[in-house]
Amino acid sequence: MTVNTNTMISITEANQNFSKVARLVDEHGTTLILKNNVPRYLVIDFHTLEKAKIADNEDLLAISERFLQKNMEAYKVLAK
User: Fold this and answer.
1) For 40-66, what is each residue's pLDDT tens digit?
2) Domain 1-44 = CATH 3.40.1620
3) Which of 17, 35, 63, 76 gives 40 a disulfide partner, CB atoms 3.0 to 4.6 angstroms apart?
4) How many CB atoms lie within 10 A of CB 11?
């Protein structure tokens, strides 16, 4: 995962100005909240999450397809 340093915000600032956090998420898709200068929380746009979930499913389908193609002869033998 790539993190944009412009979207990092301290937990104190996030607590005092959550609208700034929401605005950063709207503009960039994610915001990283730091606690004691250490990345602690990731705020992510719901639509970004949904897109990532779809990509994971597509990766799974691609892996399944490759596995089926690789073992097609064994499946044909088993089907007899």
Assistant:
1) 999 988 887 777 666 566 677 777 777
2) yes
3) 35
4) 13
